[in-house]
């Protein structure tokens, strides 16, 4: 039977020591990691927790789970325009199953290696399956993409095709049906999101405000509006849909694209004069982006920031949408 320390060494520490990147002044193996950001930059730090039964199904592929556990944290760095440096891993396990650990750590480190993101430390314990990763990145403070920087007149953009992950969740829950090929694509979007790190870096100095769409476009964009004290007008029909999502019922499409979470696409604002620069940044990053609306001034100083939804013809839509709430059912 694996002990705690043999588990850590075999599946995590040994892999971290043999990596090619060393961003920590002192990494895994001591009481603390020591991290110094590059000169002129500050640390960007984010933590995400994945809990079995809340964020993933018990039978999820452990390789996919290792990928997603790190991907959701890298997505936060992407939203700030930060370059990944490293991460810590806290892992609660109901049992130390070698086959599961081999697949989980492989999925984790394959993504970590792609982004030169070094495992710097962590902890393991027995308990219900729970994965908590803290990720560290670096960004020049004046170039960080923040939620409070949107200005009236800005365009609102989104990357990729939001809604595919929520469509996958709906298929797995039996809420709607899709053919085998579409269902496989949706499930891949749900279980193996692609963090938009390259896009976040390319948007530094171009975009004003940004965040990643983890809890649904409607709910997450609201965070930018509240932090920046502005409103937005969004064309619900302009939000891009994948070909697979477009084959689902229109009401399902809208529910997934506007209120679905777990896509980890970037939503950001930029001045209209930066449209060519945004397109060029997206091309460099290899990620499609779509302009979906406009930031507008608040109606009055006391009114809560809000999204006004419209269709492609500019007609107002009456939509009741909210983002995912971790303390309430979706």
Automatic annotation (TrEMBL):
InterPro entries: PurM-like_C_dom, PurM-like_C_sf, PurM-like_N, PurM-like_N_sf, ThiL-like. Mg(2+) 2 binds at residues 48, 76. Mg(2+) 5 binds at residue 215. Pathway: Cofactor biosynthesis; thiamine diphosphate biosynthesis; thiamine diphosphate from thiamine phosphate: step 1/1. Its EC number is 2.7.4.16. Substrate binds at residues 55, 262, 324. PANTHER family: THIAMINE-MONOPHOSPHATE KINASE (PTHR30270). This is Thiamine-monophosphate kinase. The gene is thiL.
């Amino acid at each position: 039977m694996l002990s705690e320390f043999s588990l850590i060494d075999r599946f995590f520490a040994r892999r971290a020591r043999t990596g090619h990147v060393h961003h920590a002044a002192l990494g895994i193996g001591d009481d603390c990691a020591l991290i110094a950001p590059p000169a002129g930059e500050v640390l960007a730090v984010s933590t995400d927790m994945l809990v079995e039964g809340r964020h993933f199904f018990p039978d999820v592929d452990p390789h996919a789970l290792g990928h997603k556990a790190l991907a959701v944290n890298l997505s936060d760095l992407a939203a700030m325009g930060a370059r990944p440096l490293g991460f810590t891993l806290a892992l609660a396990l109901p049992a130390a199953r070698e086959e599961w650990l081999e697949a989980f750590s492989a999925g984790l480190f394959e993504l970590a290696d792609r982004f030169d993101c070094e495992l710097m430390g962590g902890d393991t314990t027995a308990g219900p399956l729970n994965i908590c990763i803290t990720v560290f990145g670096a960004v020049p403070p004046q170039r960080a993409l923040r939620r409070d920087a949107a200005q009236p007149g800005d365009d609102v953009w989104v990357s990729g095709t939001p809604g595919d992950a929520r469509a996958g969740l709906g298929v797995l829950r039996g809420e709607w049906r899709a053919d085998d090929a579409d269902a496989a694509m949706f499930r891949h979007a749900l279980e193996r999101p692609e963090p938009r790190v390259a896009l976040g870096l390319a948007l530094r100095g171009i975009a004003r405000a940004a965040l990643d769409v983890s809890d649904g476009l409607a709910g997450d964009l609201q965070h930018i509006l509240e932090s920046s004290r502005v409103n937005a007008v969004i064309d619900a029909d302009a939000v891009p849909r994948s070909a697979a999502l477009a084959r689902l019922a229109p009401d399902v499409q809208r529910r997934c694209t506007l209120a679905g979470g777990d896509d980890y696409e970037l939503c950001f604002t930029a001045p209209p004069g930066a449209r060519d620069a945004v397109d060029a940044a997206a091309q460099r990053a290899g990620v499609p982006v779509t302009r979906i609306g406009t930031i507008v001034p608040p109606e009055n100083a006391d009114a809560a920031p809000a999204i006004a939804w419209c269709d492609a013809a500019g007609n107002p839509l009456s939509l009741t949408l909210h983002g995912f709430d971790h303390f309430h059912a979706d």
